[in-house]
Each structure stands twice: as structure tokens, then as C-alpha cells.
């Protein structure tokens, strides 16, 4: 399936609708959210769900959350954007990836991390009657968009909330997120978020 084509079809149908649909957007940080919000606010009333128990340490978690909050005070938006933070419980992440800790980036460990965060997002969207649910994760060139869309497709069936197919890095989306990060002077982290990606990043730096 061409996920980006499906995404464009949904946007086209939403544009012609009489009502503005409600979108729950799982977000990992401000920089990744920037372009996604710039685009999606033209079509949806958005609630950002900040659910990221994978992020290590708690200082990093809070720094990314605060950057996201700050972005919302600066970014122009056509429709409403709200922010909801779920409880930060790192053990939820460690339980999800147990036995996979030794695997590297773009491995099954990452798949389980996507799945954990996306499923919690779909649960929230279902309970609170959102029309669509998606995530900013696909904007990163370090994330596997096919996995993200595969997870979203089956969660749509399980929770009865429409999944907004996404590959936000397409059509220079990632490049635009870098431009917006510079424009709004945002902190851009240099590792994915979990303790394992931090260790991998530090090792690479030590070897350079």
C-alpha cells in the first residue's frame, strides 16, 4: 500500500467535509511535531497526546515536553490545538521491550516501542471519541514508516478509531521540521529517546 497516497486521500475527503474532524496526534517531541502540526491544523482540530515512557532520563523527558509546550505558543494554527500529557511511567516501556534490550535501532525493540505508544494513543482516542488517530513518529528518517502504518492499521480495527496513514518525512517534511526548529529556536535531541539509543549514540561519539 502507498501510505502517503492514502494519507492524501484522507486529507482531500476531510477538506470537503462540512465538519472539522477531531484528531488525536501522538507526539514524541517539539521538532518532530512542528511540521506535522503546520500541515494538519489546516484539516483537523488537534489534541496532542504526549505519551513517551521510553524517554530517558526524566530530565530529557521534561525538556522535550517543555519544548513542545513552547512550540504551541509560537506556531500559527488554523484550527484548535490542545495538549494532553499522560503519566510518565518508564517501567511500561521496559516491560514492553523486555528481552530485546540488546537489539539496535530499527529493530524489533523499536517496533515494540512504536506499538506501546500508539496503542495507548488509540485507547485514549477511543475513550474520548476522536475521529482519527496518528503519530508524529514517521517524520523521522530513523523510524520505519511501514511498521508505524502496519501498527496503525490493526489498531484502527481493534479500537474503532480511524487511523490517519502517515509518512510525514515525504515531500520534504523532515527538512521542513529542521527549518521550523531553527525558526523557533527549538532544542533538537541527538538520540531517539530511550536509554539504549543514548548508549548507542554515546558509543558512536566515543569512536569518532
SSE diagram, text form:
Blueprint: H1 3-15, E1 22-26, H2 30-40, E2 45-50, H3 58-74, E3 81-85, H4 90-96, H5 108-127, E4 132-135, H6 145-159, E5 162-163, H7 173-183, H8 195-207
Helix content: 40-55%
Strand numbers in spatial order across the main sheet: 3-2-1-4-5
CATH topology: Rossmann fold
Instruction: Give the strand tally.
Output: 5
Largest sheet: 5 strands, parallel
Report strand %.
5-15%
Element order: H for helix, E for strand? HEHEHEHHEHEHH
Quote the average pLDDT: 95
Oligomer: single chain
Features:
alpha/beta, Rossmann fold, 5-stranded parallel sheet, 8 helices
Could you explain the architecture of this structure?
This protein has 208 residues and is α/β, with parallel strands linked by helices. It has a single domain, classed as 3-Layer(aba) Sandwich (Rossmann fold). The chain has eight helices and five strands. The protein has helices at residues 3-15, 30-40, 58-74, 90-96, 108-127, 145-159, 173-183, 195-207, and strands spanning 22-26, 45-50, 81-85, 132-135, 162-163. A five-stranded parallel beta sheet has the order 3-2-1-4-5, sandwiched between helices. Helix 2 (30-40) packs across helix 7 and helix 5 packs parallel to helix 6. The relative contact order is 0.19.
Amino acid at each position: 500500500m502507498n501510505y502517503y497516497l492514502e494519507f492524501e486521500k484522507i486529507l482531500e475527503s476531510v477538506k470537503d467535509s462540512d465538519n472539522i474532524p477531531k484528531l488525536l496526534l501522538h507526539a514524541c517531541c517539539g521538532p518532530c511535531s512542528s511540521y506535522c502540526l503546520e500541515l494538519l491544523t489546516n484539516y483537523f482540530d488537534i489534541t496532542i497526546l504526549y505519551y513517551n515512557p521510553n524517554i530517558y532520563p526524566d530530565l530529557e523527558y521534561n525538556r522535550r515536553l517543555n519544548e513542545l509546550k513552547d512550540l504551541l505558543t509560537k506556531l500559527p494554527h488554523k484550527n484548535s490545538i490542545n495538549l494532553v500529557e499522560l503519566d510518565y511511567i518508564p517501567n511500561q516501556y521496559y516491560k514492553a521491550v523486555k528481552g530485546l534490550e540488546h537489539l539496535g535501532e530499527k529493530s524489533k525493540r523499536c517496533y515494540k516501542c512504536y506499538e506501546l505508544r500508539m496503542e495507548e494513543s488509540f485507547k485514549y482516542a477511543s475513550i474520548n471519541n476522536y475521529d482519527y488517530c496518528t503519530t508524529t513518529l514517521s517524520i523521522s528518517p530513523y523510524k520505519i514508516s511501514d511498521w508505524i502504518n502496519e501498527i496503525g492499521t490493526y489498531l484502527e480495527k481493534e479500537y474503532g478509531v480511524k487511523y490517519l496513514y502517515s509518512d510525514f518525512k515525504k515531500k520534504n517534511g523532515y527538512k521542513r521540521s529542521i527549518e521550523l526548529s531553527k525558526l523557533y529556536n527549538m532544542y533538537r535531541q541527538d538520540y531517539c529517546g530511550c536509554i539504549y539509543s543514548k548508549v548507542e549514540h554515546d558509543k558512536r561519539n566515543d569512536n569518532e
